[in-house]
Automatic annotation (TrEMBL):
UniProt keyword list: ATP-binding, Nucleotide-binding, Transport
Protein name per UniProt: ABC transporter ATP-binding protein
Coiled coil: none
Pfam families assigned to the protein according to its UniProt record, in alphabetical order: ABC_tran (PF00005)
GO molecular-function term, one example from the UniProt record: ATP binding
Subcellular location: Cell inner membrane
Source species: Roseofilum halophilum BLCC-M91
SUPFAM superfamilies tied to this protein: P-loop containing nucleoside triphosphate hydrolases
Length: 253
């Protein structure tokens, strides 16, 4: 695949929920293969709406969304902040759910579930129930459930927003480690600037009223990234760049 060619292009996209509420206005964005793209912005600027537009869960009011290889639009997986696991079902059963819904038998699903659980290092707890797991482990189950369908594009809506800082840092590292193996395209919504800088090739800063892009900040730091990046001056400088763009984002234009 040509990495200079976007896999998806949103052009002049707007989303209006009702007459008063223009959630997103005239937004243009290209998404490239295997990139990690973060969306940051003040509450209500339309980050989740944009993710839902990309996923096709919400329809555009105007503009276009093109998947340049039509099969890619079918290979999306969503991860939400709330792990949303079935409490009465084991880890294995929770990860099996998308395959079950797709009509895959338990026997045929076995290997894929095993691989997904190994990826997030949960194969030891496959027979545990969600109540027996920590918040970080629940989120890993949620990620395994997204990965079991072998998506090409992961849409993640504040997946680590409810976790403590140490667990978040750990899961950021695990996500990058998984990404280096699988090279999905990831669109990642977060309120945490450090997280956005650490993970991303590109941080897209959105502003409110109406929801729009105010800055795109490339993070020109090679992968693999680790704690040495977190301690680097460049990390703080990127943080400042994003923070400055964000402070402009909340000023009406
Ligand atoms: N289903 C809906 N019906 C009506 N309005 C909606 C709907 N979904 C979102 N909105 C509105 O669209 C705007 C953008 O909301 P959205 O949830 O996308 O913002 P956000 O940037 O993700 O916010 P947060 O950071 O608080 O999660 C808000 O004004 C919100 O009230």
């Amino acid at each position: 695949m040509d990495i200079d060619q976007p896999i998806a292009t949103l052009e002049n996209v707007s989303k209006r929920f009702d007459r008063q509420n223009l959630a997103i206005a005239d937004l243009t964005l290209k998404i490239y293969p295997s990139e990690i793209l973060s969306l940051v912005g003040p509450s209500g600027c339309g980050k989740s709406t944009l993710l839902r537009l990309i996923s096709g869960l919400t329809s555009l009011s105007s503009g276009t969304l093109n998947w340049h290889n039509s099969s890619q639009s079918n290979q999306l997986a969503f991860v939400f902040q709330d792990a949303a696991l079935m409490p009465w079902a084991t880890v294995w059963e929770n990860v099996y759910l998308p395959l079950k819904l797709a009509g895959v038998s338990r026997k045929s699903a076995q290997d894929r579930i095993q691989e997904a659980l190994e990826l997030v290092q949960l194969e030891q707890v496959s027979t545990s129930y969600p109540r027996q797991l920590s918040g970080g482990m629940k989120m890993r189950v949620s990620i395994a459930r997204a990965l079991v369908n072998t998506p090409q594009v992961l849409l993640m809506d504040e997946p680590f927003g409810a976790l403590d800082d140490i667990t978040r840092t750990q899961l950021n590292d695990e996500l990058l480690n998984l990404w280096s193996q699988k090279r999905w395209t990831i669109v990642f919504v977060t309120h945490n600037i450090y997280e956005a800088v650490y993970l991303s090739h590109r941080v897209v800063v959105m502003g409110t009223a109406p929801g729009r892009i105010v800055a795109e900040i490339p993070i020109n730091e090679p992968y693999p990234r680790d704690s040495s990046f977190r301690g680097a001056i460049a990390y703080t400088e990127y943080y400042q760049q994003v923070a400055t763009a964000l402070s402009q984002a909340i000023t009406p234009h």
